[in-house]
Amino acid sequence: MTNSLSYSTQLAQQARVAATALANVTAGRKNAWLRRVADTLRDDATAIVAANAIDLDAGADSGLSPAMLDRLKLTPDSIDSLASAVGQIIALPDPVGEVIEGQRRPNGLYVSRVRVPLGVVFFIYESRPNVTIDAAALCVKSGNAVILRGGKEAIHSNRALQAVIEKTLVAEQLPQHAVQLVESTDREIVGHLLSLGNLIDVTIPRGGKSLIERVAREATMPVIKHFDGICHVFVDASADEKMAVEITVNSKCQRPGVCNAAETLLIHQAAAPKLWPQLAKELQSRGVELRCCPVSLAMISNGKPATDEDYATEYLDLILSVRIVESIDQAIEHIRRFGSAHTDAIVTNSVESAMKFEAEVDSAAVVINASTRFNDGGELGMGAEIGISTDRFHARGPCGLRELTSYKFVVRGEGQIRS
To answer: Which residue from 92, 217, 267, 367 has the highest number of Cβ atoms inside 10 Å of its Cβ?
Structure first.
């Protein structure tokens, strides 16, 4: 225990020193590092894929689900895409130093609010090794030092990616501890790091509900949280049928193992008799298991009865809960009861229904006549993201560069004193 506490404290102390140094690094130097990271990822792709294969074999042996293995897998193409994503971060404006607003006071003082880094970020995540690069790139570009703690199922992959990060930091003469990977899978280290609120400014967990709950319970610093992605599509009475089918199928099937995939379909009773059998056929042809309320179950074949537990579940799989509702009010009440304030969509041709849904559904993203899959930093024009927050403070929705900054007041005077 003493060794793990000492190790954790050393990581945090090193990150604090690095964060101070990063605050003065220019956008040009940070972008030069990012370009080198992208180039090195492509150069080292063979070694990274080989390390990833060790994790995939171990994951298969330990019984990881196909969805989890898909999240874990790296290929030459996915590494090239990862390098391209780093290139996209280069193109984003550096938020550090941006003047948010400024005003001249009657006494001559000029008061401005200026973006500054958060400082030291402790980032905990599961499965997806590509997040190692995304998190490192976003944190360094926004002037933050980051401590990365990936899941044990991706340890070899993360070490290979960290090797890229370390040698490129040295090559570009940036603080060598700007990005540190927790090399051990010891769970005690997470607890120790969460206790170091005097050294770490914010923790960002990205993973299953039990991980988020543990971090929220133990952290001694602010936490930017992402709980379940229980996302809904509500098909209103006035919805265009073709649009409703396409949006629902895309929201559920385009990539079912991610947090912005739909988990529940709500259909207005006026639209259900004609639309639901057609939509069910499209979903079932793609392998989707349908768990239905009594009304929707009676309209189709091969469905299964739904329970309240189903409506409260983030499946991350080709399973969809379904309910026929009497009104938009009942749909909104269902979302309030079972949703997770992540992403909820309405398909409608009614301006009144769209406005009501927008006003009364309190989620990080409310989507009107489009797929839930668009709640993503890249799709919303923010570039890469470190996660999607379901909090209301300090950030909500996709967390990109700006969400990794805070601000400070800068007051410029010419000798003024307060009377």
So the answer is: 267
Model confidence pLDDT, tens digit, residues 379-417: 888 777 888 898 888 889 989 999 999 999 999 999 999
Domain count along the chain: 2
Q: What is the CATH number of the domain that holds 103?
A: 3.40.605.10
- Give residue-wise pLDDT tens across range 117-174: 999 999 999 878 999 999 999 999 999 999 999 999 999 999 999 999 999 999 999 9
- Same domain, yes or no, for 275 and 128? no
Domain harbouring 341, CATH code: 3.40.309.10
Expressed as residue numbers, the domain containing 244 is: 231-374
pLDDT at 225: 87
CA-nearest of 118, 158, 135, 263 to 205 is 135
Domain contains 386: no
pTM of this structure: 0.87
Distance CA 285, CA 280 (A): 8
Residue 292 falls inside a structural domain: yes
Residues whose CB falls within 8 Å of the CB of residue 163, separated by 6 or more in sequence, listed in order? 44
